[in-house]
Design a protein that fits this description.
Number of helices: 5
Largest sheet: none
Distance between the termini: 47 Å
Strand content: under 5%
Structural class: mainly alpha
């Protein structure tokens, strides 16, 4: 298999592949209700299974993907624990949302993307060319 990723570091590529596959598996379900319907009605068993899997997965990332470099000025503490906990929290919160929230989010995202394409992108382009003229 030929690596077509920008990085030649296999650990980085494996981590990217792991995130892509797990995200794809979650996105495969048309609704998060499908995932919650797999749990029993009282739901505590899901937490007993999911939290240790999250912990073991994050521990695997921290052991098998070594830190690439030491930050010189500042660094994020507790990596990968804080980012992993943040992702887990966001997935939990997203699972409790109603379908209308996802529709509103899509509409809001579309409006912001339209604004960026129509206004922000041109302003960035104009500012970059203005900087080049000042330097010349």
């Amino acid at each position: 298999m030929v690596c077509t990723c920008p990085s030649k570091d296999w650990n980085t590529n494996n981590a990217t592949l792991l995130i892509a596959i797990s995200s794809g598996l979650i996105a495969f379900f048309p609704s998060l209700d499908v995932l919650t319907s797999l749990l029993p009605p009282n739901g505590w068993v899901g937490y007993v299974v999911t939290i240790p899997l999250w912990f073991l997965g994050t521990m695997g990332i921290s052991f098998f993907l070594p830190q690439q470099r030491t930050p010189k000025v500042w660094g994020v503490p507790m990596v990968p624990w804080f980012p992993s906990l943040s992702i887990a929290t966001n997935l939990f919160l997203m699972g409790s949302l109603e379908p209308q929230a996802f529709i509103r989010f899509g509409i809001c995202t579309g409006k912001m993307l339209g604004y960026y394409i129509l206004v922000g992108l041109h302003a960035t382009y104009d500012m970059a060319h203005q900087q080049q003229k000042l330097e010349a």
